[in-house]
């Protein structure tokens, strides 16, 4: 992150202003993630080169949340126009959009079933589903091998 901040034009300008005591008080250089990073209102300023990766990671690992949930889950980060860019990214997902159009209200973390792949080899394709929380905060992981189910 630090390396990318030092190479990003917007970040470099903000860092230079901070070093010359000319910066907006919302900007600061603070320790985060083990290094000193540029922050805006105590949120890590994300250089342009990392924005797409961060949006992809949050969208995938949070199981395809809507734009508002994804934006709020990314509250440790900031960049100019972030909320609009996150919304555009989330709405660009064809699978999510289709699921919402055809299935009514889409539940957070759910995607429509994907078609089965043709294969002749065992364990080429494995399907997994996580069910829960169940009583007592338990979860159940179901794994099915496609060839011999």
Secondary structure class reads alpha+beta
Distance between the termini: 45 Å
| Helix content bin | 25-40%
Summarize the main sheet. Answer: 4 strands, mixed
Low-pLDDT windows of residues: none
Number of helices: 6
Task: Could you tell me the CATH topology label of the largest domain.
Answer: Endonuclease III, domain 1
| Tally of separate domains | 2
Oligomer: single chain
Strand content: 15-25%
CATH domain class name of the largest domain: Mainly Alpha
* Number of extended strands: 6
What sequence of helices (H) and strands (E) makes up the elements? Answer: HHEEEHHEHHEE
Taken from the alpha-carbon principal axes, the silhouette is elongated
Placed side by side, the strands forming the largest sheet appear as: 1-2-3-4
Whole-number mean pLDDT: 82
CATH architectural designation of the largest domain: Orthogonal Bundle
């Amino acid at each position: 992150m630090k390396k990318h901040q030092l190479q990003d034009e917007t970040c470099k300008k903000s860092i230079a202003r901070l070093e010359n005591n000319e910066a907006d008080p919302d900007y600061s250089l603070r320790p985060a993630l083990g290094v000193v990073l540029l922050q805006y209102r105590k949120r890590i300023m994300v250089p342009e080169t990392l924005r797409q990766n961060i949006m992809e990671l949050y969208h995938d690992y949070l199981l395809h949340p809507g734009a508002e949930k994804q934006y709020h889950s990314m509250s440790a980060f900031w960049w100019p126009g972030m909320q609009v860019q996150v919304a555009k990214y989330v709405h660009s997902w064809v699978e999510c959009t289709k699921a919402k159009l055809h299935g009514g209200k889409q539940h957070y973390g759910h995607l429509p079933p994907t078609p089965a792949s043709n294969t002749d080899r065992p364990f080429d394709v494995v399907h997994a589903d996580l069910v829960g929380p169940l009583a007592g905060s338990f979860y159940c992981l179901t794994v099915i091998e496609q060839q011999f189910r």
